Amino acid sequence: MVQKLLQPGLQGYWRFGHEVTVEIVDTRSKAQVEEALAEHLHQHHCDWVEQYCDGIQIGDDEMGLLYEHEVLMEILSPATRCLYWKNGNPRRIEVLKSSELEVSPELVSLLASSMSRKRSVKGLDSVLIAQIPAWHVGVLKVDGAAQALLLPGLKGYWRVGYDVTVEIVDTRLQALEVGGQEILTRDKVNLRINLSANWRYHDVLMAYEQLSEPVAYLYRELQFALREVVGTRSLDELLENKQVIDELVSKQIRQMTEDFGLEVASLGVKDIILPGDMKAILSQVVEAEKSAQANVIRRREETAATRSLLNTAKVMENNPIALRLKELETLESIAERINQISVYGGLDQVLNGLVQIKG
To answer: Domain Band, which positions (predicted)?
Structure first.
């Protein structure tokens, strides 16, 4: 049992017939009186409390700020009753109403400054401090419900009696990748499709009032829309017009998201990946189609060449001069490939030897 509070100095006591112990307390590093001892002093030694301690009493609907040498040391919760040893440090208590949710800008700035200097303020976990950067907004949630939209800046809120959170939201255009979606077409071909969408919030508070996770909701709706568009069409339809996927998914997703504060600016299919066996089959089909097209073109050219030769023959048949010119052209073509030509009997003999003209 506590019998006496001893001041600094040399003390002595007889132990005959008594068990005497002295507990030394460093009032500088451990300024707060232990709860059990404080209660004992309040009940049995009120005069000691007044002489050696500073008593602090915070009401049920109040918050307390403890300052030493005008430096904030501790945030005291409602219904706090405690004692601090008098150690020469001047103390003062600032009392606030706990019903107020928002922390004053001056106190937020003070707490943020203390945190940046890595100086611990006891009871700091009773305050939520949020730094909202530029091009972002903060969604203030109290007990899980969205309450307000916060503009960029430093904000602070009391957590006493409330579950307070601030979710930082980027208001700029963002990309969402929907990758590796394996979908069966109408003709039972398994495709793997990768989709990319560019989106933004057009009403952040509306989105968070209706959706717990807006991004997850948008991802799921993109999945559902993609499966519906691909699953109701054949492989040939999709390969002939890939743009139809983008157009139909975009139309459907806008209808699904416009009432939830979300806006899809653009979207597109990045890849359509076919199974290995289907790739081989399509390669054979394409090869056969191209081969058939080449044959058609070849036959068309051969027909045109034959028709041209026929027309030339008809001209030469009725015109000996044209035939003679063709002979000279042929002779010129042959002469270009021969280094030396020996002519016997004159040029007419050479030409008559090449072509026999029957009248």
So the answer is: 127-286
* Distance between CA atoms of residues 153 and 103, nearest Å: 14
Q: Is the dihedral of CA 258, 262, 264, 265 positive or negative?
A: positive
How far is Cα of residue 247 from the mean position of the Cα atoms in its chain? Answer: 23
Q: What is the pTM of this model?
A: 0.63
Mapped onto helix, strand or coil, the DSSP state of residue 220 is helix
272: Cα separation from own chain's centroid: 23
What percent of the chain is helix, strand and coil (3-state, nearest 5)? 40, 30, 30
* Residue with the two structure tokens 């990309």: 175
Query: Nearest CA to 57 among 34, 83, 37, 75?
Result: 83
Q: What amino acid is encoded at 357 in this protein?
A: I
Q: How many CB atoms lie within 10 A of CB 253?
A: 21
Digits of tens for pLDDT over the chain (359 positions)?
A: 676 776 777 877 777 777 877 777 777 777 888 888 888 888 888 888 788 888 888 888 888 999 988 888 889 989 888 888 888 888 888 988 878 889 999 999 988 888 877 777 888 888 999 999 999 999 999 988 889 999 999 999 998 888 999 999 999 999 999 988 888 888 888 888 999 999 999 999 999 989 989 999 999 999 999 999 998 988 888 877 878 889 999 999 998 898 899 999 999 988 888 876 665 656 665 666 767 777 888 888 888 878 877 777 777 777 777 767 776 777 677 666 666 656 565 556 555 655 444 44
Q: How far apart, in whole angstroms, are the C-alpha atoms of residue 54 and residue 5?
A: 15
3-state secondary structure of 321: helix
Residues in the chain: 359
In terms of C-beta density within 10 A (0-12 exposed, 13-18 middle, 19 or more buried), how is residue 226 classed?
A: buried
- H helix or E strand, kind and range, residue 218: helix 214-231
Element (H, E) at 170: strand 164-170
Cβ neighbors of 327 (< 8 A, separation 6 or more) are: 351, 354, 355
Burial of 228 (0-12, 13-18, 19+ CB in 10 A): middle
